[in-house]
Structures are given as structure tokens and as C-alpha cells.
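> tool_call: predict_assembly(chains=two)
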Amino acid sequence: MSGIAITFMIISMLTIWGGLALSLWNLSRHPEKQDDDIELAPTGNE
Amino acid sequence: MSTPSLKKGAPLAEGKRETFSSRKLFILSAIGSAVGLGNIWRFPYVAYENGGGAFLIPYLVAILCAGIPLLFLDYAIGHRYRGSAPLAYRRANRKAEVLGWWQVLICFVIAIYYAAIIAWAAMYCWFSITKAWDKNPDGASGFFMEDFLQVAPEAGVSLDIVGGVFGPMLGVWLVAIIIMVAGVNKGISRANGIFMPLLIVMFVILVVQSVFLPGAIDGLNAFFTPNFEALQNPGVWAAAFGHIFFSLSVAFGIMVTYSSYMRRKSDLTGSGYVVAFANSSFELLAGIGVFAALGFMAYNANSAVGDVATSGIGLAFIAFPTIVSAAPFGSVIGVLFFGSLVFAGLTSLISILEVIVAAFQDKLGWNRKSATLVVTLPVAFISMVLFPTTTGLYLLDTLDAFVNQFGILACALVLVIVFGAGLGMLPRLAKHLNRHSSIKLGTGWMVLVGGIGPAALGYMLINEFQTKITESYSGYPIWFNGVFGWGMAGALIIGAVLMSFIPWGKNSKLNDPEFEQHQKDVEAEEFPDPVGKEY
């Protein structure tokens, strides 16, 4: 493989797979919230 | 099939609307939908043809400027209005319902031919073991066209059934219907929970095996060597936007439907980034695996990689069988490759079917089982009549080309114009996305969806229109492309308009008390209570 091809292979892997790793890391920092119904009298906002 | 009656003992939906039991299962199902046949057989060639390594630049721009923003638009509509595509759009604006039915009909057309390709791939797993194509004097190409599909010499419509395709297609539909009947959690989630890890493991093994083949390095060299001049060509940028758009399954109605099954306090944007980058990560892996294998093919044939590089059906059912016959442990490569196509295809097929099933379930208010059967059995029947025939390949080719461009692309363009500019809903939707999401959206997102989105989609649609109007697609007879290409695309619009005129009955989900509670919860968050609640 030529040097430029290897460089672009590495850049592609770093940006795309790195993007996945980064987005997974971001998600892991924000745990799932549980839903709860908000018990409110009709607000008249409809 | 027993026809459900709306009179006594009507099989109406009971209990709450289904939700994905965890965020992980939603993400896995959304990735399963996005990762399809195109990731494996389309992306590698598109990248190679459009600048090789340099394609990364327009590709990343397309993901960040169009793919992900449009994905978030789908998420926002589905999650905020909590319904299948027609219902969610109707709840957003009564006149927008027709767009949902347009998407439902597009999904119907895709589903009927997608099942055929999955069935071919399933058969090719077996053929990889027997290397059945070695017996044909014309090799893999002769085997595919003559022995396997028994393709008629002229494009047309024949009802001559090809038994070798009929059987596996029946199997595919049976599996798909069982998954669909089981519902969101027991069916879709579970299927994705099994098929997706399996797909990833199989594909990684395939890629590792491919890169150690002789000549693989030449394939990778061809794939990654950048051609910077290509970046000056607007066609390359259009190819990047077009590929991302189809690859991420945006504006199919799929993501609207899936996000309607997410919990209210879901991290929509955080999940979306994972889905988008996982889809691209798989594509990159596919590019490496496919071009390593093509490098071996060129090495074996003593030719250049450019001479053997191809995409789509030609890559999967002609090039790969040739590689399987020549490579060491070729049968293993074949089973892994075609098995990957089956799993990637099945997880996408079920997401496409879910758009249709969910729409009818909402409209009729029936329970899951009845609504699924009333939808999937006729779809499967039409698919089984048209595609396991001697003319199935022609039909598939034309339907695919026209439904993609004048179905999905056209519908997406109308959708972004209507929701972006027409209804002026983007600020409200951005607010909704930001409520519980980890990555906040601002004016930039609205500009991308309302500006870049319509511009890119409009450019692609005009280009495609000019190409298809000036030449007969694939050289097929004019009447054939007229009926199954242009005619089908037009019929989808007429059908959608007619469907939107059918009133929503009292059993439908239009006036669902559960949605009223959801609406109340969402609005309470939109207008926070001053005495203090958790927001």
C-alpha cells in the first residue's frame, strides 16, 4: 500500500470509528431516565 | 386467515402502546434498520468511484450536514407525536397525513422486492458450500442468470415460477411474519438483539479473512488512494449526500415509527449519533472487506482492481461467487458474506414492514397480531407472485431504481419543505429534541434541515429526473419502465392521497387516551410548572 493510501485508511478509521467511540462514550455519561406521568390539572395550554 | 371483525369480539388493541424496553434495544434496532444491503454492496463502490480515500471528506460533510440532522427530524416527529408515520404527521398537521401514507406505500414496494434478495442470499450460503456455479460453463454469471434465476430473455411480466427462488422466499416471509406478529419487544427487539451481534461477528471474521488473501493489499490501495480532483466534481458531492441519505434510512417513515416506541425521557440526539456512526463504521468495515476480496479477485485474474470492481447484485452474486471458488477456505468466505447479507437484509426488512404494520395498527386500532397478519399476508402474497419468476429480476431492478429516486427522494424533499419551511415547526421540534437529550440542537440544526436538506435533495432529484427521462432505464422497453417505474411512482402518490381521505374510525388511535396523557406530559415540560418539578 502506498503511504498516502495508508494515511487515508488511518484517517478514515480514526474519524468514523473514533466518532462511534466518542458517541458511545457520550451516551454512557448520560444514563437512561425513567418515565413518569406528570399529574397535572389541565393547563389550558392546548 | 380469519378476517378480524369490528363488530362483536373485535380484536382491538389492549393496554399501552409498546415501547422499546431499553435504550440499548432501540439503538440496536435502529442500527439494524440502517445497516442493510447497501452498506455491504453499495458503499464500497460508491467510495471507490468518487475519489477513493478523498471521498471521506464529502462523506463526513454529508453525514454531519444532512444525514444526522434529517435523522433527528424523523426522531423528533415520531417521538413528539408518538405514532406511525401517517398518525404522527397528522397529529403534527392534519394536511401532512398524506406524506405518511406515501411513505407507507414506498415501504410496501421496497418490502416486496427486498425479501427476494434476502432469499437469493440465503440460497447462496448453501451454494457457497457446494460451489454450484463451478458447473456452469459461463461461471458465476451464467449460473446466476440461467441456472438460478432462469431469467427470461426480454423484460416483461411472467408468472412462470422458479422453484429454486420460491421456496427460500417463502421461508424469508415466514420468518419476517413471525417476527412482526411477536411485536416490538418480543419480535423486533429480540430479532435485532440476536441478528445484529451475529452479523457483526460474522462480518469481522470475513474482513479478517479477506485482508490476508493474496492481492488484498492492492484492493485496499485502490480503495483508500485519494483522488483529490474528484472533490471539484459536484457529482461526487451529490453521490455522498445520496449515499448517506439512503444508508441512514431517513425519510422512509422507519425512524418516525421506531422513535415513537421510545420512552418520553429518551436521549434522542445522543442515541442518534451512535446510530449514525455505527452505520458508517459498518460501511467502512464493508469497504475494507469487499475491496480486499476484490484485490484477490484481480490478483487471481491477473487484472487491475478497477477491472473487477463493481457493486450491487453484480458484486454479490457474480463477483463474490468467483472469489469463493478461487480463495483458500472460499466456502467459509461465502457463508460469512451471504450470511451477513441475510442478517443485514432481514433486520432492515422488518423495519420496513413495521412502517406498514404500525400505520394500519393505528388506523384500525386492532391488536398487534390481527393488524400484522392483515398487512403482511397480502404483502407477502404479492411479493411471492411477482418476484420468484423468470422476470423477477427485471421488475426488481426497475422498481428499485424508481422507488428510490421518485419515491423516497421526492417524498423526503416534500417532507423537509413542509416541516422545515411550510409548517415552521423546527423551533418546536428542536425544543422537543433538547428536552432530555445530551447533545443540544440550535439554529444550526434548523438551517441544515430547512436549508441544506431541501437544497441537497432537490439537486439530486432534478439530476435523477433528467437522467431517467432522457434514456430508457437499463434499456428496458418503454412500456415496462412506464408502468413499473414512472407509473408505480405516480401510483404511490395517488394511493397516498386516497388513503388520507379514509376517515379515522372511533377505534383508531387518533383519539388515544394514552396519547392525550403523553401530550399532557410533553406540554407540561414545554411550559414548566413554576412550583418545581423535575425537568
